[in-house]
Amino acid sequence: MRARQLEVFIAVMRAGTVTAAARMLNISQPALSQIVLHTEDELGFTLFERVKGRLRPTPEALEIFPDAERLSVGLEGLRRKTADLRLGRAGLVRVAASPPPAMAVLPRAFTEFRAQHPNILLRSHIAPIASIIDMLRAGDASLGVAMDDRPPPDIEAEVIGRVGFVCLLPAGHRLRDKDELTLADLAGEDLISYRGNTRPADELAHAARAQGVTFSPTLEIDVSISAVGFVQAGLGVALVDALLPWAQFAGLVVRPLAASPEFPVALLTSRARALSRADEIMRDHIRTTCSTVLGECDAGA
Q1: Is 114 in the same domain as 255?
Q2: Which one of 107, 182, 197, 278 is separated from 143 by 20 to 30 angstroms, measured CA to CA?
Q3: What is the reported pTM?
Q4: Does residue 271 share a domain with residue 132?
């Protein structure tokens, strides 16, 4: 499957119709249909069944789709790298981070770095831990910042800080007058927190068991920032990391969680790839900034 065929296949899988896929790729419908048919001829099996104006993936298409997406990510990374080389950029630092450190740590670290190195291009990616690891392996990011220090063996994790949890309450909530909240205080509340089998959820569940209470969210989230809208809408009380600058969001009351468990903020690098001098300088800025931010979080608590 050639690069263009791969691109068309992924577009049709995501869009579901020839019209929508052609619009995504900015090509004509007949041209896209021809590429699909030609691809099927070369592969020797059908990728899509035509059902009431839609293209329904065959079992074979569903089988190869995950591999196709991984190849597409690698191809896009290659395109970015060749573009950087073609434009003759003096340097490039690429950092992938999960949302809390991306919002709380990277802006300051980037500001300090830019003041000293104005001609080096900075590139930021916000991604979950699994995608950060893929980017480090592929060379699409040199540095990763995540709230987990348990990566695979080929990824090095340096713990640069630890962060606890806070409770986000809707304005006017009955618990707003308390200076801090315990897990027991939240019994009977509709709880918004991390989905199971994630590092924060594991830490909260362990703390709840130790305190003889139950940790059972009624609304699970993948990233803490998504809790803001749910709390503002009155859907419940959120238990989230203390790293994000929660006070900047209107309609929220922020209270620290008493006897809060802590989980790590880790700086991730690939053991197989050496860092450039610019990467090393950025790593130092991230370390220093993280320490400062966490110190402010502790003072605010």
Answers
A1: no
A2: 197
A3: 0.67
A4: yes
Q: What CATH code is carried by the domain that includes residue 20?
A: 1.10.10.10
| Residue 286 · residue 106 · CB < 8 Å | yes
Domains contained in the chain, number: 3
Task: Name the strand (E) or helix (H) holding 221.
Answer: strand 219-221
Separation of alpha carbons 1 and 13, rounded Å:
15
Q: How many helices (DSSP H) and strands (DSSP E) are in the chain?
A: 10, 12
Q: What is the rounded distance in angstroms from the CA atom of residue 60 to the CA atom of residue 300?
A: 55
Per-residue pLDDT of the chain (301 residues; tens, 9 = 90+): 888 999 999 999 988 888 888 998 999 999 999 999 999 999 999 999 988 778 889 999 999 998 888 888 888 777 776 765 554 455 789 999 999 999 999 999 999 999 988 888 899 999 988 999 999 999 999 999 999 899 999 999 999 999 999 999 998 899 999 999 999 999 889 999 998 888 889 889 999 999 999 889 999 998 899 999 999 999 999 999 999 889 889 999 999 999 999 989 999 999 999 998 889 999 999 999 999 999 887 666 5
Identify the domain containing residue 240 by its residue range: 165-261
One-letter identity of residue 14: R
Same-domain status, 121 and 94: yes
Beta bridge partners of 241: 165
CA 52/CA 67 separation, integer angstroms: 28
Q: Which residues pair with 223 in a beta bridge?
A: none
Q: Which of 56, 86, 116 is the last residue of a domain?
A: 86
Q: Report DSSP state, residue 181.
A: B
Both 75 and 33 in one domain: the answer is yes
Q: Name the residue with tokens 């640069």.
A: 160
The SS3 call for residue 28 is coil
Q: How far apart (Å, rounded) are the C-alpha atoms in residues 129 and 146?
A: 6
The residue behind tokens 């434009």 is 87
Domain C-terminal end among 86, 103, 119: 86
The pair of three-digit structure tokens given for residue 252, joined into one six-digit string = 């929220």
- Same domain for 173 and 41, yes or no, is no
